[in-house]
Every structure is written in structure tokens, then in C-alpha cells.
Write a structure and sequence with these properties.
Blueprint: H1 2-20, H2 33-40, H3 42-61, H4 66-84, H5 89-110, E1 118-129, E2 132-143, H6 151-167, E3 179-192, E4 195-205, E5 212-221, E6 226-227, H7 230-233, H8 239-258, H9 268-275, E7 281-284, E8 287-292, E9 305-309, H10 311-314
Parallel strand pairs: 2-3
Antiparallel strand pairs: 1-2, 3-4, 4-5, 5-6, 7-8, 8-9
Helix pairs in contact: 1-3, 1-4, 2-3, 3-5, 8-9
């Protein structure tokens, strides 16, 4: 009954909230610090309205059991939001903005076709070990659909999240007065009706001169429940790899003119090795984005490099009946 009540309330509230310019809930009844923070910030109030509108639009076009799954996932998201966003006013506002932006985009993506039964899960920890304090804020997806078996891909996300949390927890006798952190969120993209791209974005600081972050993408075929490497997306043979090397190499060469990278990264053999890594293929709706994180093709100061490839360039290379067709 509680889930049904939440669905009904979230579906109706956007129209009231938009008229009054506040968030999707009654600020006179704000019951926690997070809600009171949203009520005091016009930008966050707008973000709340937009997220609830996206939820209502998605909920309105699906039926049980998808509607029940969505409602449970939304409840879990709210609980996680309330537990994870803490600290001073600026820290809380930043945390809320990130969460609202990604949640809204993911809800919109889920509405592009049949409901994909993807839920959001989290690991949130704060504490102090020795003299080092730490904050861990990890969000990761779980595929709950049937009849495909998503066991392997779900274990990958779950185990990777647990490993990251463990590696970002200082040892009990940490002697440095530092603040470690690990943050991870994800965005969903729908490059075709039967595939979902998960783009994991992370940033970690565990001592040293600076932190490290990056983006890792995984394409999942909703029909099989399996993650798909580039060789399963493109037609058999190595023609696709040669073409990717050519396209990406030409684009990076131009980027290096303004943002110098490693010259040896442009060598065909080296670039072919890099382009064989499926985690840099971020398939989106209407384009393919290739991501190179810091240090991969340039120095840390250069940051990440991205290469966008239009459908006209990659469509002739696709495998018939594959996840992107």
C-alpha cells in the first residue's frame, strides 16, 4: 500500500508544484534536512519538479509489474538521497544536484521504448580510520528484467562497487590527516530498442598529489542479458577495427593540436590495442562516443579525450541482428 501511495502522490504533485514554483512536495510539511534544503534553493526545487515530472511521465505509460518495479526503485532512490546528501549547505546542494540530474536523465532514458527494469543501488559509508576520514558514495545499476539472465552483469557491477568501497577505506592505522573519497554514479543510454549502455563515472582520492577519475561504459543486450564487446556489435572480421582506428586517430590528431597528447598513442598498432577495449565504447542514441580517460592517450593535465562518431560512419560496419542495428 505504501508503494501505491507514493506512485499516486508523485504522479499528481508536479502540476501543483509547477504552479507554485516550489518542489514537488509541500514545504510546510518538510520533514528532514534534505527537504528543507530543497525548499530553500530555487534551482533544487526546479530539479525536484523536473525529476518528478519525468517519473510521472514514465509511470503513466507503463503497467504492472513495471509500474511496481519503478515505484520500489523510486522509494529506494529517495531513501538513498536522504542518507547520502549531508554536510554543510554547499556540500548538500552539490550532492542533491548531481543526484537529481542523473535520476531525471535515467528516467527519461527508461521511457524510450519498453521499460528496461533497471534499478539503482548504492553503497554509502562515512567514517574515520586512524587519522584519515573518508566518504564513499557509490551508485550502480542492477538489471531486474526477465526472462533473460542478467546474473553475470549484475555480479560485475555489485562486485566492482564492493571492491571500490574496500579500496577506498583507509587502513585502521592510517597516520595521515587526509580525507579520502570515492564517488560513482551512472547514466543510462538507449542506443537501440533492445540495448542499454551504462556509463559509470567515478572519482577517487586516496592520497597523493591528486585524485583520479574516469568513465567506463558497458553495452548490455536486453534480449540475452549479456554485456557485448565491440566484436559482438560489429560485423565479423577486423574491418571495423581498422575503420575505428582510422576515424579515431584522425580526430585525436586534430585534438592534439590544441590539447597535446602522447604521439605514440596515434600509432596504428597502439591505437588498435586501445580500440579493442569495449569499456571506452559509449553507445548513445544516435551516436557513438569513444572515451579515453586521463593518462590513456595524454598526460593527466590534458584530462579526458572524447571522439564522437556519427551513425553514417559506423552503421555500415554493424553486425546484422546485433544489439545496435
Amino acid at each position: 500500500m505504501k508503494i501505491i501511495a507514493i506512485v499516486a502522490a508523485v504522479t499528481l504533485l508536479p502540476f501543483v508544484a509547477m504552479a507554485q514554483g516550489g518542489p514537488s512536495f509541500d514545504c510546510a510539511k518538510a520533514s528532514n534536512t534534505v527537504e528543507r534544503t530543497i525548499c530553500k534553493d530555487a534551482e533544487l526545487a526546479k530539479a525536484d519538479r523536473e525529476m518528478v515530472a519525468a517519473f510521472a511521465a514514465l509511470s503513466g505509460k507503463i503497467a504492472a509489474p513495471a509500474k511496481d518495479h519503478l515505484a520500489k526503485d523510486q522509494t529506494r532512490w529517495i531513501v538513498d538521497r536522504n542518507g547520502a546528501c549531508a554536510g554543510d549547505a554547499d556540500e548538500m546542494a552539490d550532492c542533491l544536484k548531481v543526484r537529481y540530474d542523473t535520476r531525471t536523465e535515467n528516467l527519461k532514458t527508461m521511457a524510450l521504448g519498453a521499460y528496461p527494469f533497471v534499478s539503482e543501488h548504492a553503497i554509502h559509508k562515512t567514517g574515520k580510520a586512524g587519522k584519515t576520514s573518508y566518504t564513499i558514495d557509490i551508485r550502480y545499476p542492477q538489471f531486474d528484467g526477465t526472462p533473460a539472465d542478467f546474473g553475470a552483469i549484475n555480479r560485475l557491477y555489485r562486485d566492482d562497487a564492493a571492491h571500490s568501497a574496500k579500496e577506498s577505506t583507509p587502513p585502521a592505522d592510517a597516520a595521515d590527516e587526509q580525507k579520502w573519497s570515492f564517488e560513482q554514479g551512472f547514466l543510462l543510454f538507449r542506443p537501440s530498442p533492445h540495448a542499454i549502455t551504462v556509463s559509470l563515472d567515478y572519482y577517487a582520492y586516496t592520497g597523493g598529489a591528486h585524485g583520479n577519475g574516469g568513465t567506463v561504459c558497458t553495452l548490455t543486450d536486453l534480449r540475452s542479458g549479456k554485456s557485448v564487446e565491440p566484436g559482438g556489435v560489429f560485423a565479423a572480421g577486423d574491418k571495423w577495427l581498422g575503420e575505428m582506428v582510422r576515424l579515431v586517430g584522425a580526430d585525436l590528431k586534430k585534438q592534439f593540436e590544441k590539447n597535446p597528447g602522447f604521439d605514440d598513442a596515434l600509432q596504428p598498432a597502439k591505437l588498435a590495442e586501445l580500440m579493442s577495449d569495449g569499456t571506452r565504447y559509449c553507445w548513445r542514441r544516435g551516436k557513438l562516443q569513444i572515451v579515453f580517460n586521463a593518462y590513456e592517450v595524454g598526460p593527466y593535465a590534458a584530462g579526458a579525450y572524447q571522439v564522437d562518431i556519427a551513425p553514417a560512419a559506423y552503421k555500415p560496419l554493424l553486425r546484422a541482428g546485433g544489439p545496435i542495428d
